[in-house]
């Protein structure tokens, strides 16, 4: 049996549309149960990536920066739960929003994932975004948790090839 090669891969994202295209590639190969852990400072492009993700998944509704909302649901062939944990006081609050059910049936994208790390599954796709210039960002992508040839590995492999 071959062990899948998974490491951290860095992409340079020149222009917001390139960040959206990364999200779209992830969405196109995602299956229910995938959790995407998004990190990076204000304006790093987390919501831009989720916008592309929504396109790749073919879900309904516009993805916005949910200023006062913690979760928004986009229904589709595979539904997308968009979480913004920036204002979340306690990760346990997410359980009140039906977290476990969504975990089983949808793709979940979490902005400010560092704030809810305790409730995230060990096996997930992590994307760290950082500013490099006005229109340039870097994305460090990795599949966390025990390495296995699963849906997370597949999404990782497709995401890093542009
Ligand atoms: N290469 C790029 N990738 C992503 N966004 C870019 C890029 N270049 C410029 N931008 C701009 O940076 C901003 C990114 O905003 P976005 O809301 O996606 O960030 P965010 O990480 O979700 O911020 P917040 O922490 O406030 O939720 C947008 O205005 C976008 O047009
Ligand atoms: Mg955002």
Overall average pLDDT: 92
Proportion of residues in extended strands:
25-35%
Question: What number of domains?
Answer: 1
Oligomer: single chain
The helix/strand series, from N terminus to C terminus, equals: EHEHEEHHEEEH
CATH superfamily: P-loop containing nucleotide triphosphate hydrolases
- The CATH architecture name reads 3-Layer(aba) Sandwich
Global shape: globular
CATH class label: Alpha Beta
Radius of gyration: 15 Å
What can you see in these coordinates?
- It is a single chain.
- This protein has helices spanning 16-29, 46-57, 93-96, 99-105, 151-159; strands spanning 9-14, 35-39, 71-74, 79-84, 106-111, 125-131, 136-143.
- By secondary structure, the protein is an alpha/beta fold.
- It has a 7-stranded mixed sheet, with helices on both faces.
- A hairpin with a 4-residue loop joins strand 3 and strand 4 (79-84).
- 37% of the residues are buried.
- Magnesium ion binds next to helix 2.
Please outline what is shown here.
With 162 residues, this protein is an alpha/beta fold. The chain has helices spanning 16-29, 46-57, 93-96, 99-105, 151-159, and strands at 9-14, 35-39, 71-74, 79-84, 106-111, 125-131, 136-143.
